[in-house]
Automatic annotation (TrEMBL):
Catalysis performed (reactions): (R)-2-hydroxyglutarate + NAD(+) = 2-oxoglutarate + NADH + H(+); (2R)-3-phosphoglycerate + NAD(+) = 3-phosphooxypyruvate + NADH + H(+)
Molecular function terms, GO-annotated: NAD binding; phosphoglycerate dehydrogenase activity
Chain's role: Catalyzes the reversible oxidation of 3-phospho-D-glycerate to 3-phosphonooxypyruvate, the first step of the phosphorylated L-serine biosynthesis pathway. Also catalyzes the reversible oxidation of 2-hydroxyglutarate to 2-oxoglutarate.
Pathway of action: Amino-acid biosynthesis; L-serine biosynthesis; L-serine from 3-phospho-D-glycerate: step 1/3
GO biological process: L-serine biosynthetic process
PROSITE patterns: ACT, D_2_HYDROXYACID_DH_1, D_2_HYDROXYACID_DH_2, D_2_HYDROXYACID_DH_3
Entry similarity comment: Belongs to the D-isomer specific 2-hydroxyacid dehydrogenase family.
Name this polypeptide is given: D-3-phosphoglycerate dehydrogenase
Enzyme class: oxidoreductase
InterPro entries (alphabetical): ACT-like_dom_sf, ACT_dom, ASB_dom_sf, D-2-hydroxyacid_DH, D-isomer_2_OHA_DH_cat_dom, D-isomer_DH_CS, D-isomer_DH_CS1, D-isomer_DH_NAD-bd
EC number(s) given by UniProt: 1.1.1.95
Residue ranges constituting the ACT domain according to the UniProt record: 456-528
Amino acid sequence: MSFNILISDPLSEDGIQPLREAENVHVVMETNLSPEELEERISEFDALLVRSSTQVTRSVISKGKNLKIIGRAGVGVDNIDLDAATEHGVIVVNAPNGNTNSAAEHTMAMLMSLSRNIPQAYLSLKNHQWDRKKYVGVELRDKTLGIVGLGRIGTEVATRAKGQRMNVVAYDPFFTEEKAEKMGIGYGTLEEVIQQADFITVHTPLLKETRHMINGKAFEMMKDGVYIINCARGGIIDEDALYDAIVSNKVAGAALDVFEEEPFMDHKLLELPEVVATPHLGASTLEAQEIVAVDVSEDVLRYLNGDTVRNPVNLPSLSKDVMKKVEPYFHLAEKLGSFLIDLVDEVAQEIHISYAGELYDMEVAPITRNTVKGILKRHLGMHVNDVNALYLAERKGIIVNENKTSTAKGFTNLITVEMKTKSQVRKVSGTLLNGMGARIVNVDDYSVDVRPEGHMVVIEHTDQPGVIGRLGSLLAEHDINIATMQVDRSDVGGKAIMILTIDRHLDDPALKDLDELEVIKEVVAIDL
Ligand SMILES: NC(=O)C1=CN([C@@H]2O[C@H](COP(=O)(O)OP(=O)(O)OC[C@H]3O[C@@H](n4cnc5c(N)ncnc54)[C@H](O)[C@@H]3O)[C@@H](O)[C@H]2O)C=CC1
Ligand SMILES: O=C(O)CCC(=O)C(=O)O
């Protein structure tokens, strides 16, 4: 069997040698296709290889009648519609390790350019100015580097910064005091890290939680004269807030490799002399480009030839029979995981999943993967899927186990997810009702009946008259409509729980007002 492969972004010619040498493969490199041309041509191909420029949209994927695999020569897969790929049975692979070193080195280059005004001084000299006073810099030695996101790249940056004799302090939800001690660096919350740092560098994926995590409020907490570096993703730092912070001299300078919108020709941040910038060059080295191209090429060949891939980003293949039985539970499992992680609002240390009733006789491993995916997505983002969820959990030191029991408390099937975090153990159970979809039926030891979807508020309160009325009025004051309400209590006048589904996200002002009500012990907003 022979396969057609389209490479639509510039990839290292040495890196794609495995493809060029394969006998059953025909490679077409077309790096200037418009989105319309890509949609028109994609049905000719079995595989598509991209970097970050090609937008692999739902429309491209749905027109790819022969498309079997998409290879991303790099880490971030935010230019590929993963849901659409999964829905269309197209596997996505990436190259998560190949550009770590280059991205870390680029970060260090940006850090040093910033501290010593190298780009500005170079431009000045090119303009025939010999200005030594204007470009006095600051030393890195004994300064504190705050790292937000201590994954592959963040960790490499930490090691290099220590080599510059900097103090390093990091925040990552998966980072612990013990790990910090082993690495010889400091550990703190996001606030603590940004308050202590002289230089701040971000290395998280761009997620709902990380979008604008460095915003106006964060800048206010920082030291005067702080320096900011972003070689991860545009959007983690609020560009408008950064602009204001530089103009007001709160921030002494910023080094940016990535932007909220790319590519661009003009950008207001680049009008500021304190900003140094590169056009998304973090991974642009000969070495990284060769390694990432080799990695994806090999995975693409493996897959086309029927072998297992090394770096899957989305779906595994299950036998049709197993799939038919377990697939209906995937959605419920993922929602239970997402519900629980929102409820605890802390990183999971242990996850115990219990399957009861008719699930007793099923192959539940794929359901477990979906549950863990729901939990990990909160911090690791869209690239978590049921293929890599357990691998990522293991990498993050999270214990995952499952057990089966025949007692399903009167339900025909029941999934119970219990999560242990640093400070609490919480659990949630759900079931699939025949013909009526998924329901959450227990939260901790309370019985409820809620569809796991949309915007929710979980409120722990004291069982006493008037609570429901006060809550209802308060939400009405914030123009929030209650769609459904479930209440249960431990005993009369004791602890009670209320789960509301509401028509829009519970925003911070409403959350704060609810939290201030005396009868309320805990209020959590959940968006599924
Ligand atoms: N400029 C460029 O050319 C390149 C950019 N990148 C980008 O760099 C970023 C990091 O890449 P890797 O280190 O390979 O990824 P990684 O997955 O190894 O590390 C990301 C880390 O961020 C942490 N994180 C998630 N949510 C967080 C939060 N709310 N606060 C703090 N930490 C959080 C995760 O726990 C994880 O440890 C990605 O966005 C990637 O796309 C990667 C390579 C090149
Ligand atoms: O392909 C590139 O050059 C971008 C690399 C990148 O941003 C990534 O790997 O996430």
